[in-house]
Amino acid sequence: MLGFVPPLPQQPGRPPSSGHMIVCGDDALARRLAVELRFIYGERVTLLLPPGRDASGPQTPMTQRGRAAALFGRMSAAMNRAGHGNGATDGSGDTNAGVEAVRIMEAPEPSDDVLEEAGIDRAAALALVYDDDERNIRAALTARRFNPRLRLVIRLYNRKLGQHLEELLDQAAAVAMPGIDPALLDASTTVLSDADTAAPALAATALTGSSKVIQAEGLLLRAAERPPPGPGESADPGLCTLALLSSTTNDPAGAEGSDSSGDEAPQLLPDERAVAETTGRGTVVLEAISRADPARPATRMGGRGAPLSQVFSRRLRWSALGIALAALALVVASLLTTRDGLVHSTYLTLLDLLGMNDPSEDGTTARKVIQLLSGVAGLLLLPLLIAAVLEAFGTLRTASSLRRPPRGLSGHVVLLGLGKIGTRVLMRLRELDIPVVVVEEDPEARGIPLARSLHVPTVIGDVTQEGVLEAAKIYRARALLALTSIDTTNLEATLYARSVKPDLRVALRLYDDEFATAVYRTLRTAHPQALTRSRSVSHLAAPAFAGAMMGRQVLGAIPVERKVMLFAALEVAGHPQLEGRTVEQAFRAGAWRVLAIDATPPADRNPDLAAPPPFDPEGAPPPPSSGLVWDLHPGYVLRAQDRVVIAATRRGLAELLRRQRSAVPGR
User: What is the C-alpha separation between 210 and 201, in angstroms, rounded?
Assistant: First the structure.
């Protein structure tokens, strides 16, 4: 039975054959990834989970094994309904035919004995997606020692450490297997971050609710949602139509479509006929392709230096202005009552102010009065200077502390939570120069140093307590991003924010799909004119991790309601559905579409198309133009040496990879 997970004591000690995939993790991403590999790619999967309750969901009494089994059961039922109700895509077949159920193991650590029991020496790929970077690194080093040919996919939050680790593990594989194909070596180790994968989609949802950006060789692919055309109007297809939104998108009581929504679900990669015949549905189109700016550091809010208003108080500034006006009046009086020039009168007045001049015993009465008044002004100047010094020291002392939201701030994004996801989203928003106010309960949270260095206004407090969101100026915000790790906290903050500002744009992070659907429908009904989105980080990140385990580079994933569309780079060689066919013939509606061809010679190609061009603060000349050709003629014949960028559904990419495996001898 598909999706059935037998009890642990009945499972065999070793997998029955080689070539399986192992997923090790302790949170939702591990379970999602196992589902992706099992039900989308049709792979044999061994899932290694820690025993006991799920740490990511303390509000539920289910164990890790129980949550995984429930998820596999729901996915299996959905796949069976989709297969019997709608039929499979022509030629795709059953992804799960002949594949046994996911094998679940429980162990506190991926030790040597546990990995051997999981069959690490015969596995094709291993995903290490624990939330702890150190645990993933230790397990990766152990796995490479057991199986040099193993494809490793590692979840790391630290980007620099990930680059060094990838080079180290690739070098170890090259030493263990002399003469290995460079292409295979390049795919042998992949370091990914679920936060980096999900942050662009979450940030885009908060900004406009419609724009999604994917980066490829220094170029930006911008996908945008467009409303359904009115009577007598025709929809603008942009460069190409990527998806048709569900029929319930404009229904206040409707829900975002998912894989189990049937005919009401969004249609990914429709053909021109389907687009022309569909009415009343919005679209997602490829709107523009532009050159990406170099990877600049996130900018500070309020500039690099502190303005005068932040160094000295308003009372001190008014006092200084009064002293300056008094000194100017004394200089003018000296000019009018004496025959001295401007420079000499100013010089004498300053000496009198500072108490450095001799008494004017032989001077005129007017000169004596001016000297007395200058002395009085000088007495007032002394406490002013002392106050300025004290306030300057106070500003320096608090410069490293968190900023409070300024009084006149408006049009900003309120970000709840500065964990791994919130920190990456904050960095993304500041790279786009979007004003942000952060709300975080833990003063020692991961993203607090980043918020401090970027001078981002931060409110420390429990978002569920009264007055916290008001301190973040929620009533003047443009959007709310609720990204804490607790679903109920995100929901409570969203409901309270909507009570303060009913038209507030909201994007909240929710794990459970059924709960997210119910929340979405209720919020749409209560606030039909306001934009509401619910997103799961594991749902956004799992396709990229699964593609990496299959040896393919996934450039990015964009959410289309509760479905996911992937952008990937593929070598045409070994794909019979692409090789020798024209661009028009290679298009498979609902599965994949060729968007671009890399015209760069194979020896000079950039192995990582998703990498942004380096930022040179010295203003070096711009990088050379990209080798990707986007304006493709429909009659262009794809050759084996070509590398293409495709938009694909999860099933479409899985079908391409299955066909390639079947075309390779020995697989």
Answer: 10
Report which DSSP code applies to 273: H
Q: Rounded distance, CA 294 to CA 215, Å?
A: 12
Q: pLDDT tens digit string along 306-316?
A: 455 556 677 87
CA distance 309 to 407: 13
CB atoms within 10 A of CB 385: 11
C-alpha to C-alpha distance for 414 and 476, rounded to whole angstroms: 10
d(CA 568, CA 548): 10
Closest alpha carbon to 574 in 92, 184, 271, 36: 184
User: What pTM, to 2 d.p., does this model score?
Assistant: 0.70
Query: Cβ(112)–Cβ(13) under 8 Å?
Result: no
CA distance 351 to 134: 67
- Distance set, CA 370 to CA 60, 328, 366, 384 (Å): 82, 12, 6, 21
Query: What's the Cα-to-Cα distance from 475 to each of 191, 404, 482, 553, rounded to whole Å?
Result: 40, 16, 16, 42
Pairing mode, strands 125-129 and 151-155: parallel
Give the pLDDT confidence of 455-501 residue by residue, as tens digits.
899 999 998 888 899 999 999 999 999 999 888 898 899 889 988 89
**CA dihedral angle for residue 582, residue 587, residue 593, residue 595, rounded to 10 degrees:** 30
- DSSP assignments along 379-440, one per residue: HHHHHHHHHHHHHHHHHHHHTTSPBPPPTT--S-EEEE--SHHHHHHHHHHHHTT--EEEEE
Candidates 40, 26, 41, 67; CA nearest to 155 is 26
